[in-house]
Write a structure and sequence with these properties.
Order of helices and strands: HHHHHHEEHEEHEEHEEEE
Number of helices: 9
Protein name: Molybdopterin-dependent oxidoreductase
Number of strands: 10
Organism: Streptomyces citrinus
Oligomer: single chain
Low-confidence stretches: none
Bound molecules: protoporphyrin IX containing FE, the ligand Nc1nc2c(c(=O)[nH]1)N[C@H]1C(S)=C(S)[C@@H](COP(=O)(O)O)O[C@H]1N2, molybdenum atom
Number of domains: 2
Mean pLDDT: 91
Helix content: 40-55%
Length: about 375
């Protein structure tokens, strides 16, 4: 590669025990676990929200708190990945300045894959973090970009692991040398563990109830909100006003379409369910819901065994105005058109007069201010 002899100033060599492969491997392993948890739970979130047609009839409605656990784990491990990623970058940065920068085609490709991995991961974790804070400063769809980057990360991570396999194997085979495994590395790892522990402890309480009193930094505290439940989008933010609800009716399309007033809905058999709202942004809270079973409403429309449904909110704009409810949910005894929350009439912010609540379903699909149910296919 004679053409590569560019005359650039040579960076100083950095030789410190904390920049050695063993430290990089130890931290990398933890970071790898966090990324794999993010990827696996991210896949769950994606397929629960947008199941391909052949999956939609098989979505699991149990355990009812499944999405609370997977999305809680996603955001917890995603946040933990941030200090891990910074520590990893700090241990390996001297290697990013190796000289000459490119030794061969293979070396160039390896460095390119690392550049892609680092850039995509930095972008992924910072976008994810901003999203949980409900801050969307970018002009593109968060989900589409976060989804694409996840595959870029996993692909370049596999490539990176394949390239580094000998180094990693060396780490396992090498005898522990006291000189490089001394107090320096121990303090780095303790410091990193402390950082990971702290960011986790002050945010995880948004989905892990026992930690809720430590929740200093999470955007949502599980106890703050009307009727003991946080609100993601308020009625005001959704431009839903109480005065337009005066002559509200629920309409149901299907083989035998009908419509009902709120009083008529209240006169139907009421059922209770204890189910969480599990927001995609990582907070969850379990609540007690009462209302009419979706199954019963469909049976009344001439569809006795559940159906794929379109749920339409009276909210006029916004991405979550219309959602689809697949058959595993619509025929489930726990899926309600809820009229009451924690033993009171649903408040306006929680979706008065009626909202969807279904088991093991991402919060974003638990449509509020429902005005219409349309049977798509029975
Ligand atoms: C390397 C790390 C990460 C990977 C591989 C990853 C992967 C994914 C995937 C595949 C999804 C599903 C996207 C879809 O539905 O199309 C997702 C969703 C999500 N991720 Fe991550 N993620 C990572 C880090 C993070 C971090 C650090 C956070 C926040 C602290 C975060 C927050 C979110 C949120 C809020 C969603 C839900 C988005 C929505 O459906 O509206 N992610 N992630
Ligand atoms: N019509 C409508 N329904 C909606 C939303 C919305 O913006 N519009 N937000 C969803 C989101 S993202 C969540 S997490 C839950 C939150 O319900 P809560 O405000 O009652 O806690 O409502 C869902 N239902
Ligand atoms: Mo949400």
């Amino acid at each position: 590669m004679g053409g590569m002899n560019l005359r650039l100033p040579r960076p100083p060599a950095i030789r410190a025990p904390l920049h050695d492969p063993r430290t990089a491997t130890v931290i990398g392993r933890l970071l790898g676990v966090a990324i794999l948890v993010c990827f696996a739970t991210g896949l769950v979130s994606h397929y629960l929200q947008e199941p391909p047609a052949r999956l939609s009839g098989w979505l699991p409605t149990r355990p009812v708190w499944g999405y609370r656990v997977t999305q809680g784990a996603h955001v917890i491990s995603g946040i933990a990945a941030i200090p891990l990623l910074l520590a990893k970058l700090w241990t390996v940065y001297p290697r990013l300045l190796v000289w000459p920068p490119v030794r061969s085609v293979a070396h160039a490709l390896e460095r390119l894959s690392i550049a892609v991995l680092v850039a995509a991961t930095l972008l992924e974790v910072s976008m994810g973090l901003l999203n949980t804070a409900q801050w969307y400063p970018w002009p593109f769809s968060f989900r589409a970009v976060h989804w694409a980057l996840a595959w870029v990360i996993v692909g370049s991570l596999l490539l990176h692991l394949a390239v580094k396999a000998p180094v990693v194997a060396g780490h396992w085979r090498a005898p522990r040398e006291p000189s490089v495994d001394g107090p320096d590395r121990r303090s780095l790892l303790i410091g990193m563990g402390f950082a990971v522990g702290t960011v986790t402890a002050v945010t995880a309480g948004q989905s892990v109830t026992v930690l809720k009193n430590l929740t200093l930094l999470a955007p949502r505290h599980p106890d703050h909100g009307p009727q003991g439940l946080p609100v993601n989008r308020t009625a005001r933010a959704a431009h839903v006003r109480r005065d337009e609800l005066a002559d509200w009716r629920l309409t149901v399309s299907g083989p035998r379409p009908y419509s009902l007033s709120l009083a008529e809905l209240r006169a139907l058999p009421q059922h209770a369910a204890t189910l969480p709202i599990a927001c995609v942004e990582g907070w969850s809270k379990t609540a007690h819901w009462e209302g009419v079973r979706i199954r019963d409403l469909l049976a009344r429309a001439g569809v006795p065994d559940g159906a794929r449904l379109r749920v339409v909110s009276l909210q006029r704009g916004g991405a979550y105005r219309v959602t689809e409810l697949d058959r595993p949910y619509s025929r489930d005894d726990l899926t309600l058109l809820a009229l009451r929350l924690n033993r009171e009439v649903l408040s306006l912010d929680h979706g008065f007069p009626a909202r969807i609540i279904a088991p093991n379903r991402p919060g974003v699909l638990q449509t509020k201010w429902v005005s219409r149910l349309e049977v798509l296919d029975a």
